[in-house]
UniProtKB/TrEMBL annotation:
Protein name in the entry: NADH-cytochrome b5 reductase
Requisite cofactors: FAD
Binding site for FAD: 78, 93, 95, 102-103, 144
GO CC term, one of those recorded: mitochondrial outer membrane
Species this protein is from: Kalanchoe fedtschenkoi (Lavender scallops)
EC number(s) per entry: 1.6.2.2
Length: 259
């Protein structure tokens, strides 16, 4: 029954008007804040009605506006972990850095407060069947657009696109959305795989160690081909290193996209 309802929703998505405004900021109420670790929290925002959808195309992001510790306005782009099939609300998973200007705003955000959002934004817009397979190279909070795209593909019964994700972090506790990613890997074993890489792994770690290498990409991502695309999202040094690795392995610019 759930899959039938999901399919019906996907078929009618083109006829649904979202709540986002690409020209003006719109405010949404924080209805639930869940602390996931010492510096990561999930923020659930209500849409105007229980049947409303955010209206964010898959693979795109939105600008969030807040105030830093000095009271100055700050705007930063984020990608929700929810889809438009999650009606009535959207969620952001945020890692709050000690010196981050927008991190300060989210640290201070309490249930009942409002967040100003504008969008959609971004050059990437996913369409089912766009490629045969995606490779995904994510670091830290760069997992959020990957998670959004992966969910959209895997929850669409008609979309058979394969996904191979390499997700890099410093420590085990830094891994965001691990339970959800592992759940996708268990539910869709023939379509989705995830390989974790840690710079400072625990003693019993059986994943990758150090930084993402060319050898890891060769082993865990689809080989270069016209119907393959590798998505990248992470800190600037990682993005630069991954671009060099992919070029050396034969992935053309058309086979890559950086969020």
């Amino acid at each position: 029954m759930y899959l039938c309802l999901k399919l019906i929703f996907l078929l009618f998505m083109d006829y649904i008007v979202g709540c986002l405004d690409s020209e003006n900021f719109v405010e949404f109420k924080l209805v639930k804040r869940t602390q996931l670790s010492h510096n990561v929290a999930s923020f659930k925002f209500a849409l105007p009605t229980p049947n409303s959808v955010l209206g964010l195309p898959i693979g795109q992001h939105m600008s969030c506006r807040g105030k830093d510790a000095a009271g100055d306005e700050v705007v930063k782009a984020y990608t929700p972990t929810t889809l438009d099939s999650d009606i009535g609300y959207f969620e952001l998973v945020i890692k709050m850095y000690p010196q981050g200007r927008m991190s300060h705003h989210f640290r201070e955000l309490k249930e009942g407060d409002y967040l100003a959002v504008k969008g959609p934004k971004g050059r990437f817009k996913y369409e089912p069947g766009q490629v045969r397979a995606f490779g995904m190279l994510a670091g830290g909070t760069g997992i959020t657009p990957m998670f959004q795209v992966a969910r959209a593909i895997l929850e669409n019964p008609k979309d058979k696109t394969k996904i191979s994700l390499i997700y890099a972090n410093v420590t085990y506790d830094d891994i965001l959305l691990k339970d959800q990613l592992d759940g996708l890997a268990r539910t869709y074993p023939d379509q989705f795989s995830v390989y974790y890489v840690l710079n400072q792994p625990p003693e019993s770690w059986d994943g990758g160690v150090g930084f993402v290498s060319q050898e890891m990409i060769q082993a865990h991502c689809p080989a270069p081909a016209p119907d393959v695309k590798v998505l990248r999202c992470g800190p600037p040094p990682m993005n630069k290193a991954m671009a060099a690795h992919l070029q050396a392995l034969g992935y053309t610019p058309a086979m890559q996209f950086q969020f």
